[in-house]
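Quick question about two entries, pasted in order.
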Amino acid sequence: MISSNAFDYINVLDKAADASALRNQLLANNIANQDTPDYKRQDVDFESQLQQALKNSKYTSIDSKVSNLHMSRLKPKVYTDYENYSYRLDGNNVDPEQEQIMLAANQIKYEGLMDSMTQEFKNLETVMK
C-alpha cells in the first residue's frame, strides 16, 4: 500500500467546512429564537482547536503540521455564549442584527472553504494527468 499525504489539506478543509455549516445552523437557530424568553445564543468553536492542533513546533513546516494532525480530535465544539448575560428583561441574549452579520460572514467563509477544496481537487487532477 502506498502512503500518501495528497488529501491532508482536503481533509482539514472538509473539517472546517463541516464546522462552518454547523455554525450556520446555530446562527439560524439563534435568529429563530430571538424572541424566546431565557434563550441563550449558541455558537461553535473550531478555529481555536485547529490553531492549537497546528502549534506543534515553530520550526516545523505547515505541510508537516497538517500531515501530522489527528483528524479524529479535530471536532467543532458547540457552546452557549454568555450564559449568564442578558441585555433584555426576558433573559434572552440574542442580538438579531449581530447574528445576521455573523451569518453573512460565516457564509462567505464557507464559500471560501468550498472554493479552496475545489482548487485542491483541481491540483490533484492536474498532477494525475
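Here is the second entry:
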Amino acid sequence: MRKVSLYIASSLDGYIARKDGAIDWLPPITPAEDYGYGAFFSRIDTVLLGRKTYELSLTFSGQPYEGRRCVVFTHTPLKWRDPHAEFVSDDIAGFVRALRAEPGRDIWLVGGAEIVAACLAGRVVDEIILTVVPVLLGEGIPLFPPGAWGDQQLRLRDTRGFSTGLVQMTYDVLPAG
C-alpha cells in the first residue's frame, strides 16, 4: 500500500496562506537549504492538490511537479486543459483510497485546506510532515479548520530545527480505534 504524506508549511499561528491565498511569507527553497524537500520529492511519484492550489502553482516558474502524476480535484469546470495534470471531480477520499492500492511510490498531499480536510475525514493520510515558519499572520486560510475528521491520533516520529528558525515535525497518523 502506498503512503499518503501531507507535506506542508504553516505559519506559527496555523495558517497555510493569507486570506487571498498568497504565500509570500514562505521562505524560498534554495540549493543551500531545501528543508528536506529534495529528499521528500524523490520518494513520491504522485501529487494531489485542489484547484486553487493548482492555479497558484501555475504562477511558479517551470513545472513544479515535473515528472510526477499531478491529480487536481475540482468541482469547477476549467476553461483549459493541462497535459501535465489530471482533473478529478470524484469523491476525494474514495479516489485516494483506490490510488493507494495502485503500484507506485508515495503520494504527496500538497493541499489546500479543503483537500486536506477531505483526506483527513476519509482517513487516507498516513503521515504529516509539517514545517512551521516563525511568522504570525493573524488571519488567513487555516491548515486545520474546525473539521469533520474527528479525533485522529498522531505519533511524533521526528523533529528538525533549521538555522532560519523553521521547525519541521514528522508525525505518523495512527489507525482509528
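Reply: Helices lie at 37-42, 51-57, 92-101, 113-121. The chain has a mean pLDDT of 91. Hope that helps.
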